[in-house]
Amino acid sequence: MNTEKVTARRLTSDEVAELGLQEEIFVSAELDDLSLDCFAPAFLTKPGKYFDGGSFIARTIFGKEIHVLPDNAEERGVWVADEAGEEIEVLQSAGVLLNLALFVPNGNKESLESLYTAAREAFGAGIVQRWNEEVVAVPDVKVDLFEEPARGRKNTSGQNRDRRALDIYPTRVRFMEPSTGWKFIVEPHHEPIDDTPTI
């Protein structure tokens, strides 16, 4: 486990109530109901002044939401970096978890094992792990995936409307989310045709 020692002090409920969303704090490190004997960097999910009853919710950099009662002596509390404080152990972010969707033409068990082996050789056998494997047969087709404003302009032709091209493989669509204020448009793929006259 990769930790570092940080000098910090424990905050009271009144002090936490003055915190904003951008201020880094440290709360108890919990990963999948496993309570670790250290802290994790975190941020409040909303400004401290908007919480009621002295109970605060913080989200750690690992995506875990923690409910905290800072004044409860039986809990680990909320801490903030302070050179005049005491040393605490803080869990470091040691890597990045990638959720990959791989399309393998004519994929079979041997080709998937080859991909897995190549990844382990590139990054290390102890690094690359398969946590969840979903093998789905998908058609080898292409579509044009665009984004358009959720509220399009009226009386505009299809040629002039605001849109931006994103992708041509439908299997990746379910792993994507449209940008704020935009929606997905999926159309059959058309290879671009160059109409430039040639001599």
TrEMBL record:
<protein>
    <submittedName>
        <fullName>Uncharacterized protein</fullName>
    </submittedName>
</protein>
